[in-house]
Amino acid sequence: MPNLLPPCPSTLSLAIRTGLFGGLLSAVLCTLATPVQAEPARQEQRLYQIPPGNLDQALTQFAASAGLLLSVDARLTAGKPSLGLQGHYSPAQALGKLLAGSGLSAYFSDDGRVLIERAAQASDALELGATRVKGQAEDDALKDYGVPRSVETRDLEQLERFRGRSNADMLAGIAGVQTSDGRNGGGIEVNIRGIQGQGRVPVKVDGSQQSLDVYRGYAGTAQRAYIDPDLISSVTVNKGPSLDAGASGAIGGSVEMQTLTVDDILKPGQTTGWRLRGSLSDNSTADVPSDYRVRPRTERNDLLHPHDWSRSLAFAHKDEAFDVVAAYAERRNNNYFAGKHGYSRYDTSVSSGGALVDANTVARNYWPGEEVLNSSTHNKSFMLKGTLYRDNGLELGLGYRYMDSSFGEIMPSQIGRTGPSMTWPLGDFKKDIDRYDEEFWMRANPEYYQQCSAIDAPVPDGDNRWDSTGCYVRETLDPVYDYTDANQMIQFKPGNMKLHTLTSELKWRPEDDSLARYIDLNGHAWATFGRSIMYNNVGFTAPQRGQGYQDEQSENYRKSLKSDLSNLKVGTDISNTSRFVTGTGDYALTYGASYLYETIDPTRKPWQDDLENNRIERNGYRHEYSLSTALEYKPIPELTFTAGGRYSGYRIHDRNRQALFAAPAGADPDAPWWNAEFAGFADNAELSGHGFAPAYSVSYAFTPNVMAYALYNQGMRMPSLFETTLGSWSAEPNYDLRPERMKTFEVGASFKGSNLLLDNDQAGVKLAYFHNTIDDMVTRNYRYNPKGRPGFNGELKIRNVDSFTTQGVELQSHYDSHWWFADASYVYNIKAETCDRAFAQALREGGKSETPNCTTGGFQGSYTNTQNPPRYSVNLVLGAKAFEQKLATGVRMRYTSGPMYVLDKSWHVGTTTPQQHYLEARIYDFFADYQVSDELKVSFNVYNFTDQYYLDPMSQSMMPAPGRTSSLAASLQF
């Protein structure tokens, strides 16, 4: 068989390359091409200068230049465009570029002929005695650089290389992406370009969504997705709104994950196989403390005495009719230790001119090298999925996933030493850990002191202390747990999340030419059920539980701290693309629809006393639907226009009703004529709304390697259940909320190419400028006693602000020469601003006369104050390959500056949502991967190599990040 490819490395080297960017195609082609000597003329690279135009004309010029006999059915190429070809390529490389995006492949036969035909499925793409080359322009690592919008993808190799310590670490280093409070609670909340929360940036796994809104007390709120990274094969981050059928409400972007595939598990040539993987890590405690009052430890372990571990086993099978994947993964991480260097930078108080501000930093809570309490995770996950391949290009996929995650969690306001408070702005921890609890219980229920769960000596005295849950109790502490011991902190019982997910996927790309132009169908249907048990409730608004309620922490926590919720989400989306070739150009019409139903409710029936005093947990349901369409027009192959839009609507029902009185006055509830239940509650609330958001874009390919684009997209987000229902927090809901409307403007340019510095190297660069404005953004505000009520502290209320704007610049790049490689990105956030004329006027009338209508960050009480990203961030990966590419080693550097703004003005600060004081950080991670054999791969990592003490950007909790952590992992395929 003729060899049409560059010289091939050894078979073992090819096995290594299959795990690298896009190496699978070149590895297989080399392997098949090696046995037969090629004719010199067909083995050499040639210079091609084929201008853009019709594909059939481009193929004719190629055949003449290459001196090959080419056979093609004219009906396959009729009307198809070509970007042309400029440069030196082998015949296989040249055809791969010419056929990119055409749906065609080149078949090189033994007798020297080249047959152009419709691209075969993967199982048919390679045949003995011949070579089939699919149209593929560049390595997979460069595919993001050819897309006219901002997107970034990570493959399995990158995810395993930088797994990190916490689940959120899997997204570290992606340009424009930060994760919020990833050390507390075990979940992942993604911020893209300064936007996050309440469905603005959904996380999807195999098309399904899972998230839970969690109230974080004084620190605000979090929308957590619970994902097991050990079962994830790839991650794609889309920045900004899009017209994808399943992207309704995703105005900030989306994170789309794919679980393990057959190609991740099987070795080349296998149809059935297994993958066994395990890891060991240091820098963790031997166990998680069971007593909630503990002294953080300082005795670090090393990799010779590991306490953290993971293990997974995966099975895969594939053939022409179907493929199947099954996998089980388990990971246990105990509490980690903070870094030791750089602590002194935080060891200062932060003061400002704002009200109620005497800010302390994370260094006041945790000392260098000390155990960080409530930072453990224990995940157990299982997945089973399969794909059925039918005639004429029809594919049907089904899947099931289960996850049982236990995780350390603590309310941010309760992190602190037992001496002076370490949590801004709460003051003395012993006397003022919870201002609301203090006023509520001391004023309304003084006898409650004796009802609190006793945790020490039962005989009260006069020390008048507060316990760790904000409950006022009068008793003497045991000497061993003296609250003057500054070593003592709080360790809560881990929270738990159990998830069941069903997914299905439909793809239909007909092989029949009469249908192929009009049908390119994609659809998903899924359901996710989750049950959570957490200790993050708010005492005076949460159910107080009956005496018979079994609370495992009754000796340590107030009963009302426990929160049990069930959450169900059911969704579906479908889209199709029809293509038309006319004398005026090529058209592609994409149209789709989506539907989402979600419900949340407590796992137990509420008590009547709780209902009458508005002590309830969230209980409601929500419907959302959308219709979308986009028309793409190519008057010439280089120029593309797109126009479209999305129509969205929603309806929300709150099953809770607000009680209009705290207790009946002058009435006997036992009297048969007493009717307070009927007259004493507001009606159940229902909300609905709809709207249309247009989208436009244009792109131009100056050459096959250089592109520029501009887009203006709008997107709408409908109010969430958390924003519109009563329960589990202290903000008054607003039943008049308007949907948010995002307006995104982005311009960018990109370059991608090969054979630049070295033979067969590849490089890509993309630069983008973005400007996002959310009109009617939904957030929370706090006002001190706006209604002038005696004894009334203030008002927390969800409301629309006029607008929220972010603005910035991103640069990302990639280079791979197959001997050394690099990835680099830079982000500069220019602006984050909230405008709200009405609220600013209210603050001015309340005594803050200098309050402007527009402010950096957000106004007091706003969630945006805790979502303030770094002004600058830089991510750099440098690596080299050696020993016939068996070894890949290098270093990653992550730099983040301090926040964009110091939010210290009087209109910024208040009782809630303080800005956490994080500083610039440079974190270095070392990695080394070695392919011992075709079956065995060993990896070694050192995260935070210089053992820095630092706080993650946008942390809600004063929990320093992990110090230096070493990890050893091995993967075995058989």
From TrEMBL:
Record family assignment: Belongs to the TonB-dependent receptor family.
A biological process term (GO) from this entry: siderophore-iron import into cell
Pfam family, one: Plug
SUPFAM superfamilies recorded: Porins
Lineage: Bacteria, Pseudomonadati, Pseudomonadota, Gammaproteobacteria, Pseudomonadales
Gene3D superfamilies noted in UniProt: 3.55.50.30, TonB-dependent receptor, beta-barrel domain, TonB-dependent receptor, plug domain
Membrane association type: Multi-pass membrane protein
UniProt-listed InterPro entries: Beta-barrel_TonB, Beta-barrel_TonB_sf, Plug_dom, Plug_dom_sf, Secretin/TonB_short_N, TonB-dep_rcpt-like
Compartments it resides in: Cell outer membrane
Domain Secretin/TonB short N-terminal, chain residue ranges per copy: 68-119
Gene Ontology cellular-component annotations: cell outer membrane
Lineage: superkingdom: Bacteria
Keywords tagged on the record: Cell outer membrane, Ion transport, Iron, Iron transport, Membrane, Receptor, TonB box, Transmembrane, Transmembrane beta strand, Transport
Main localization (coarse): membrane
Descriptive protein name: Putative TonB-dependent receptor
Keyword Iron assigned: yes
